[in-house]
């Protein structure tokens, strides 16, 4: 099992939106960054755990925990000419972009803000702190435990 941080703007798709989906599950689509695509296609697997991070708001924060329930598969939104994530270079034979399915887990009792993450020396090497624009980022087991503790959740 691996750990990840997935960023989303809550005005587009929030943790509450994930909870409201059928089976509390949703494809994580629309990712258009090659490094994040490679994670989706090659490394993220069912059973992996996800820190759900709300970005582009006054106080960005990790707000909950989700789980990957389907490994990477072609992102169909890239092949929909009417969609906002359309990529004219993508096709069924050459999908380019990938997505995984994630299922709602539980909210953190206390959101863990970016400010708190940056202030914690145990989290100084997180990609979120060093390279904050990447929408999907690996998280170490120690970083995972630290954030869960900061958020008042039970750490494994």
Write a structural description.
- The chain has a single domain (3-150), classed as ph1033 like domains (ph1033 like fold, Roll), CATH 3.10.590.
- It is built from 5 helices and 6 strands, in the order E-H-E-H-E-E-E-H-H-E-H.
- It has helices spanning 15-20, 34-43, 114-119, 127-130, 141-150; strands at 3-8, 25-28, 49-54, 61-74, 98-113, 136-139.
- It has a 6-stranded mixed sheet with strand order 2-5-4-3-1-6.
Could you list some keywords that capture this structure?
156 residues; ph1033 like fold; alpha+beta; six-stranded mixed sheet; 6 strands; 5 helices
In CATH terms, the superfamily is: ph1033 like domains
User: Which stretches are poorly predicted, pLDDT < 50 over at least 5 residues?
Assistant: none
Helix content: 10-25%
- What overall form do the CA principal axes indicate? globular
How many separate domains make up the residues? 1
